[in-house]
Here is the input.
Amino acid sequence: MSRSAHPAGPRHADVLPEGHYSAPAADLNALDEKVWSRTVTRDADGALTVGGIAVARLAEEFGTPAYFLDESDFRARCRAWADAFGPDADVFYAGKAFLSRAVVRWLKEEGLNLDVCSGGELTTALDAGMPAERIAFHGNNKTVAEIERAVEAGVGRIVLDSFQEIVRVAHIAQRHGVRQRVQIRVTVGVEAHTHEFIATAHEDQKFGIALADGQAAEAVRRALSLDGLELIGVHSHIGSQIFDMAGFEVSARRVVQLLAEIRDEHGVELPEIDLGGGLGIAYTSDDDPREPHEIAKALSDIVTRECESAKLHTPRISVEPGRAIVGPTAFTLYEVGTIKPLEGLRTYVSVDGGMSDNIRTALYDAEYSVALVSRTSDAEPMLVRVVGKHCESGDIVVKDAFLPADLAPGDLIAVPATGAYCRSMASNYNHALRPPVVAVREGEARVIVRRETEEDLLRLDVG
Ligand code: LLP
Here is the structure.
């Protein structure tokens, strides 16, 4: 056992301060395949490699902090979702998790559709050649200009989120002489949290139109009465980072009930339902996500069963996974800066990024894993908190984790499963420069979103 470079830091589980963490892994050098992307491994020298390239080379060429995205893993996950749901269903990747033109091209090549929720995402999708009919346009407050653009482009569906929007989209479509395909987003009274769901009698949130008090049925009435709209179905999204399928089952049941009510009232069977995204991924070894084929089977079983009992034709199902596709495919690489052991507490390890490249820990109390990746180490485990370089004590990247006690400034550490909602929610706080996204595949690495520069900052600041 090597000597610790930081003797004041607590090391063993039996002397740990209070907090939420698992016991240190028996071997800190081991890489749990649940949290790392598929081509990640360690080379003969102990350095982590992705797509066959060692992190030291990546750091030298692209700098740190940086996100490294495992392109073959991304493509494999797209295919797994498409195969699991089969030809009678549609998979829409939720672009809010992470979107770039390269990603759009991969989605297109792998046969996925795309969910966008802003003019910026729509522009990126169209610019990269995603056929408009494969795009779904979301949002609780789409501007008139955004709706115009979506209708003009001919997006496959607009998901209506309010009574005002029903009229607005209908008018715009009529003005363009088209019937816009739309779905109505309903709130089904299921509030999904990370590991649980709570059925609620009424909704208290900005998205969707409530089922409970007949609002959704009224929205359907209005949409069916407007010439500019072709109502193709009902949409429900119950939350994010969900492991328990029970919330989806309740949601599917209620959506099918609404389809039956629509059939009874209007004599039409809407052909589609969309059950949204929200499937959880492993951020730490404690998380056990489901595979796409299990999810597909659970959803299609419940929809088929409910439709049989309501004597409805089974509608075409669509889903909108974002995190479950891109989340596990990337890690953030940081260089270790200052290290502060706090007697009886933990050791603070500062990295060259922070809440500007990963706001999720500060915002959602999210948990992440971390590993020393530029080398292996036989040193004892040391309880650490990985923090950024921002002027804020809440600037935490990994709240509680173990790293080898001989960690030193200049080492490279990596945080896995940062593909979703990290670059897409990155900020310039403290005038930080947002890191690049580098796609790695079969021994080649290329920048797909470049690092910001100080010139970029000054260009926006017009004096
Ligand atoms: N569809 C709709 C209508 C959504 O609102 C969302 C996410 C998704 C699909 C994709 O959900 P996913 O499969 O990625 O969980 N920033 C938060 C997550 C916000 C999700 C918002 N909507 C986070 O970092 O956890």
Q: What stands out?
A: The chain is about 30% helix and 25% strand. The two ends are 57 Å apart (CA to CA). Confidence is low (pLDDT under 50) at residues 1-13, 194-202. The domain at 138-321 is CATH 3.20.20.10 (TIM Barrel).
